[in-house]
Design a protein that fits this description.
Elements lengths: L1 E6 L3 E8 L2 E8 L5 H15 L9 E6 L1 H7 L6 E6 L5 H4 L24 E4 L2 E2 L5 E3 L3 H14 L3 E5 L8 H13 L4 E4 H4 L5 H31 L6 E4 L5 E3 H6 L7 H17 L3 E7 L4 E7 L2 E2 L1 E2 L2 E3 L11 E3 L3 E2 L2 E3 L5 E5 L5 E7 L18 H8 L16 H16 L3 H26 L8 E5 L3 H12 L3 E4 L6 H8 L3 E11 L5 H19 L6 E13 L6 E5 L9 H16 L8 E14 L14 E2 L5 E5 L6 E8 L7 E3 L3 E4 L4 E4 L3 E5 L5 E5 L4
Parallel strand pairs: 1-4, 4-11, 5-6, 5-9, 9-10, 13-23, 23-24, 29-32, 31-33
Antiparallel strand pairs: 1-2, 2-3, 7-8, 11-12, 13-14, 14-15, 14-20, 16-19, 17-18, 21-22, 24-36, 25-28, 26-27, 26-28, 30-31, 32-35, 33-34, 35-36
């Protein structure tokens, strides 16, 4: 038996895997003390199924706590220590404006203000040679300031420390001896890569959230032990793999996108199961919606992304974090996202959210603003009788009042039309985000399969599919807790990234092989599994460019001891990848390798994936139950048949519009789709029109 827990901005999802069966529960997130909802939800789920805590073999966990603490500026009182002359790197950034035409542009300020940054006289050059020894007397003066100002966390980032970490290590050891209870992050461990701005930014964010995350994880681990759990607690990383609690406490920056990564892993596993090569993963929860492109059953990955963008969709308006991450676009469009009227009398959605407290107005917890959930309730997409299995009572009149007061009366339109406007705008916002993301990746949205999960995605997915010209939709079982299910499917693995800069023609293969071996040992140590039934899967990559270029591309490297005669293979691999991106190569230019990446994961030799069987027959089914839903075209309520998902059988087919209800979510099929049940219980919605 295995458990997984996903803490979102609105709901905390818990899934229990008991053999082939999955049992789930949704709890409102207890924002101030998130462990409360986790423990309460786990206890309720186990008690309902007469299962003792001692029978659980492993617990997987993902959370948005790290992201929220950055966005809300609720991290620790932190200082930053760097090389003399580089105090302002965090403010200078890329020396560019993310919107050059905005005269009133607001730059995202560092979480560490300038007054809390200190400098040390030391210098190491680009080759790792010590030019100037570190000034230990200066460290003593900084220590006095740290003591006086009572900093909780210390970030250290020196120039070129990714090549030679000697001075950072000296500084860390000095402060650790002086302040044994303070948490310290050094850039040569957090992000041992070239480019000081990204390295410093990642280290600073790690230090900023380290006290909060390590305290939370340690409290959670202690509470689980007190409740009788004797199993390991593993954390989902932003890159889609799992790591242990010690590594998560040391490097919490790796957890910033841990929740959404679980959803992408679920979508990739569904693509594998159904043999789908071109997929859009659509995860819509209570606070945000996440969209990921999946090519050939593998989600797109990156090693850098931005958190806390001051301007939505504007690259450069947030903090760059250089960590392995599943690449996705995330927008403020969840069930709790707030709808407002802007200065142009347009309905706009998010990024603000009502969260779990006070939540949407219909929850009856004090919410006074119109949310997507309120609109869905008024339209008829959500039936109060079935919402959360009937455990959360929804107040229809409250939703009607807030939509009328905040939207309808301002635009002088009917309340029902205002609700339709909210729903249509959020669907268009999500569809547009998917279009932009696809274009940036060189893809099209048409001809793909849309996989939807999260509490709100099945409510909106058919309309989003119509806008994207997508003709096939998959809604998996347990879609309402999709990210938590994805945790159960994630590999136990860890990626190590380190810079070792060299021209390809001058590559020192002894140094490279030693580096890769050290990276493998580091990853294996973090994974920490010595079972004889499990073997390791190793993937290696080099980040390469033509000498003089500003950015590099990712190139796969063979998993073996590298030798001189491998230069031609590496060059060919680079040129093939470069030509895919830019349509040509530069035949006489030197090729340079900046950074190496090694990803190690565990897999069982007996754990082979199999495709599901095709259904040879379909049985059309009808329902005696119906509900009223506002039609987007006519603006009038129309009767739509209602089906309970648990009552549907493999091979059943529903023609045309329908409402399919389950405890954690509701699936809405529009006129353009027929729905049938696959052999594994998934819902498949197919376009039923010609052309």
């Amino acid at each position: 038996m295995r458990l997984s827990v996903d803490i979102g901005g609105t709901f905390t999802d818990i899934v229990l895997e008991n053999g082939n069966a999955l049992l789930s529960k949704k709890m409102l997130t207890t924002t101030s003390n998130p462990e409360v909802a986790v423990i309460k939800g786990i206890e309720e789920l186990l008690n309902e199924n007469n299962i003792s805590s001692s029978r659980i073999e492993i617990i997987f966990h993902g959370t948005t706590l790290a992201t929220n603490s950055i966005i809300e500026r609720k991290g620790a009182h932190t200082c930053f220590i760097t090389t003399e002359g580089f105090k302002d790197v965090l403010d200078i950034g890329y020396e560019s404006r993310f919107d050059q035409y905005d005269l009133l542009i607001e730059k995202t300020l560092s979480v560490i203000p300038r007054k809390n940054r200190f400098v040390v006289n030391e210098r190491i050059n680009v080759d790792g040679k010590v030019i100037s020894q570190i000034d230990t007397d200066r460290l003593k003066l900084i220590a006095d300031q740290i003591d006086l100002l009572n900093f909780e966390s210390i970030a250290i980032g020196f120039l070129h420390s990714y090549v030679n970490s000697k001075h950072e290590t000296i500084a860390r050891d000095f402060f650790k001896k002086r302040f044994p209870n303070k948490l310290i992050s050094i850039s040569s461990e957090v992000c041992p890569e070239i480019r000081e701005y990204e390295r410093f930014s990642t280290t600073v964010i790690n230090a900023y959230i380290k006290p909060l995350m390590s305290k939370y994880l340690q409290i959670l681990e202690t509470l689980l032990i007190e409740k009788g759990f004797k199993c390991p607690l593993l954390l989902m990383t932003s890159g889609g793999s799992l790591t242990n609690i010690k590594n998560a406490c040391d490097f919490p920056v790796r957890l910033v996108e841990s929740g959404p990564a679980g959803g992408a892993i679920l979508a990739a596993s569904i693509a594998e199961e159904l043999d789908l090569n071109k997929v859009i993963s659509f995860d819509m929860g209570g606070t945000t919606a996440k969209i990921t492109m999946i090519e050939d059953k593998i989600p797109d990955k990156a090693r850098e992304f931005e958190v806390d963008r001051k301007a939505r969709f504007k690259k450069g308006s947030g903090f760059p974090l250089r960590i392995p991450v599943i690449e996705m676009v995330e927008i403020g469009a969840g069930g709790g996202s707030i709808a407002k009227i802007n200065k142009l009398d347009q309905v706009v959605i998010g990024p603000g959210s009502a969260g779990s407290m006070p939540g949407p107005s219909c929850y009856g917890l004090g919410g006074k603003e119109a949310t997507i959930t309120d609109a869905d309730l008024l339209i008829g997409k959500i039936n109060p009788k079935y919402f959360a299995g009937g455990r959360i009572k929804l107040l229809f009149e409250e939703s009607k009042n807030v939509i009328s007061n905040n939207i309808g009366s301002i635009l002088q339109i009917k309340t029902e039309l205002a609700a339709l406007a909210i729903s249509e705008m959020v669907d268009e916002t999500m569809a547009n985000a998917a279009r932009v993301h696809a274009v940036e990746k060189g893809h099209e949205t048409s001809g793909r399969v849309l996989i939807g999960f999260g509490g709100a995605a099945p409510l909106h997915i058919a309309r989003v599919a119509e806008k994207l010209k997508v003709k096939k939709i998959i809604i998996p079982t347990n879609a309402g807790v999709g990210s938590a299910v994805g945790f159960l499917k994630a590999p136990l693995g860890y990626e190590v990234v380190k810079s070792l800069r060299s021209l390809l023609k001058n590559l020192d293969f002894n140094n490279v092989n030693l580096l890769l071996n050290d990276m493998r040992l580091e990853s294996q140590y973090i994974i920490g599994n010595k079972s004889k039934d499990i073997s390791f899967k190793e993937e290696r990559f080099a980040f390469m460019r033509y000498a003089g270029q500003g950015h590099e591309i990712k190139v796969s490297i063979e998993n073996k001891l590298l030798k001189e005669n491998d230069i031609d293979k590496i060059q060919n691999s680079f040129e093939n990848e470069y030509k895919k991106l830019y349509g040509r190569i530069l035949p006489n230019a030197d090729i340079e390798i900046l950074t190496w990446s090694l990803y190690l994961s565990l897999f069982s030799k007996n754990n082979e994936k199999s495709l599901i069987k095709n259904i040879k027959f379909k049985k059309q089914v009808q329902s005696k139950i119906s509900t009223k839903i506002l039609n987007i075209i006519s603006g009038e309520y129309e009767s739509v048949p209602v089906f309970l998902r648990n009552d549907l059988n493999v091979g059943d087919e529903i023609i045309g519009p329908s409402v399919i209800v389950e405890d954690q979510t509701t699936t809405i099929a529009t006129d353009n789709f027929n729905t049938h049940i696959l052999a594994n219980g998934y819902l498949q919605m197919d376009w039923n029109k010609d052309g």
